[in-house]
Specification:
Layout: E1 2-6, E2 27-28, E3 31-32, H1 33-43, E4 48-53, H2 57-64, E5 73-78, H3 85-97, E6 100-105, E7 108-110, H4 115-118, E8 127-132, E9 143-144, E10 154-164, H5 179-187, E11 191-196, E12 200-202, H6 206-219
Parallel strand pairs: 1-4, 1-6, 4-5, 8-11
Antiparallel strand pairs: 2-3, 6-10, 7-12, 8-10, 9-10
Amino acid sequence: MKALILAAGRGQRMMPLTQNMPKPMLKVAEKPLIEHHISNLKAAGINDIVINLAWQGDKIKDYFNDGSQFGVNIQYSQEVEGGLETAGGIIQALPLLGNSFIVINGDVYTDYNISSLVQLHLHSDEAHIVLVENPPHNLEGDFALSHLSPDSQKYTFSGISRYEADFFKGIEPGIRPLGPILRSKLSERLVSTELYIGQWDDIGTPQRLALLNERLAIANT
């Protein structure tokens, strides 16, 4: 199984930290955020990784190269300036990903065990998404746990998911957000969900990044 790390975003809310640096390269616990994902994927037995690139993507490529120094094999999916949104980026990368793959947002920090996604049994046109409890910046949440009760308590999409390639069959390439596709497919019962209660942070602002690093520093003392 392969994995795609989404790293093409502009990171406007992280300015000025992202003026000359892609958000996934910002340091968490003394390492680039995206390096934590690569380590977690490798620990789960996933050695073939694709990273999509747009804003300052050369800095990611220069740091990781082909991935061999990190014990993995990395390929890159270069997008147009400004990126293709999440679904657009996934669709462009499909030729590199095979029939079944994991997707992780490059701007979250988590201790979620990727091995559980590897072990899932999905049909050829399905997806599975990981939800988390709603953080202060997204109190209304994104998705309910059950397609049978779409109006019940909603939780936040963690940016961690697994897809079968046919899930995106028939969707034209281009700039495509993922949310509307997931909502449509949820109603068709093609998306399963789980709620993860554990370490998860959306590194969306400089303040959140600073707080996370403070917490991790205290935890390691």
